[in-house]
Write a structure and sequence with these properties.
Blueprint: H1 2-12, H2 16-47, H3 55-64, H4 68-75, H5 79-100, H6 112-145, H7 154-182, H8 185-196, H9 200-210, H10 222-227, H11 241-249, H12 260-284
Helix pairs in contact: 1-6, 2-3, 2-5, 2-6, 2-11, 4-6, 5-6, 5-7, 5-8, 6-7, 7-8, 7-12
């Protein structure tokens, strides 16, 4: 098992898709940071809480309000982008052994399928942690460019991104199932993109409108729950009026913030079910390579 993990981690750092995902994320962050720089002018004037200051002083004070946690939360406010980048990379990474025919070499080895399943999910999870590390680093850089001193609340950021990682873990399990079932990279990418973009929320909404279930299924949509995570739920720092307005103006959600007790049972439950189905599929699905 250790050798399998070493091999998967070694391949991870040689995969160009991982670095491209990080670059795309930094590009989106740069666009959002530029927009927030100019929007600070409008929101500072709307806030009205900085009485006695000139227009230029209000804008300067508004920009001082942003720190690493606020920027990280701002960038993750549209989580479909960040989860999508991870899913597209992971789909290619997980399905590559099937695509190249390497997986066929493992069939004669006892326990090789289980090791493959564990290794791929572990490597993808490590990639997710590194990816969010890049997001935090980007938030530090933006904070510096705004002329502020970066203050990193480690417990707050760890809890916030750890919950996002739990959703990613379930998505990685979905990718291993799609790869084992369809055995093609295209199918794995398409399945991952559909769920990362939360397109299934339309089906949930339709079911809720019909009233087929005694509860609202949309309240248990994993990606939707992840999108409503609020970083200020964790740690001591609280959002001020101006930054709250900016986060709200982003229009990410008017619903109550998601709590760990809401997201974790869904994400970890889906991960367990999807991983079990992947294991069953790997054991009994004929390999076409």
């Amino acid at each position: 098992m250790i050798n399998t993990l070493r091999m998967d981690f070694r391949r991870l750092f040689k995969t160009r898709g991982f670095y491209l995902a990080c670059l795309w994320a930094l590009g989106i962050m740069a666009i959002m940071a530029t927009a927030s720089w100019f929007l600070a002018d409008e929101f500072a004037r709307e806030a009205g809480g900085l009485a006695g200051l000139s227009g230029g002083q209000m804008v300067a004070e508004a920009r001082k309000l942003f720190n690493v946690s606020r920027f990280a939360s701002f960038f993750m406010g549209a989580p479909s982008f960040m989860h999508l980048f991870l899913v597209v990379f992971a789909a290619g990474y997980i399905s590559r052994d099937h695509q190249s025919g390497y997986f066929k070499n493992l069939l004669a080895l006892p326990g090789a399928r289980e090791k493959w399943l564990v290794g791929k999910q572990a490597a993808a999870l490590a990639a997710g942690a590194l990816f969010y590390g890049v997001v935090i680093l980007g938030s530090v850089v933006v904070t510096l460019l705004f002329g502020n001193t970066p203050r990193i609340d480690v417990p707050q950021l760890a809890a916030f991104f750890g919950l996002h990682l739990s959703a990613d873990l379930a998505l990685f399990a979905l990718l291993t199932l799609a790869t084992a079932l369809f055995q093609t990279r295209t199918a794995a990418v398409m399945v991952g993109m559909v769920f990362a973009f939360n397109m299934q929320a339309l089906i949930y909404l339709l079911i809720d409108q019909i009233g087929f279930l005694p509860f609202d299924l949309s309240e248990y949509g994993m990606v939707g729950l992840a999108g409503r995570l609020d970083i200020f739920t964790f740690g001591q720092a609280q959002p001020d009026l101006l930054s709250s307005m900016m986060m709200g103006r982003g229009g990410f959600s008017n619903m109550a913030p998601t709590t760990p007790g809401q997201l974790l049972p869904v994400s970890l439950g889906l991960w367990a079910v999807l991983t079990f189905l992947s294991w069953i599929t790997l054991r009994y699905r004929d390999y076409r390579g």
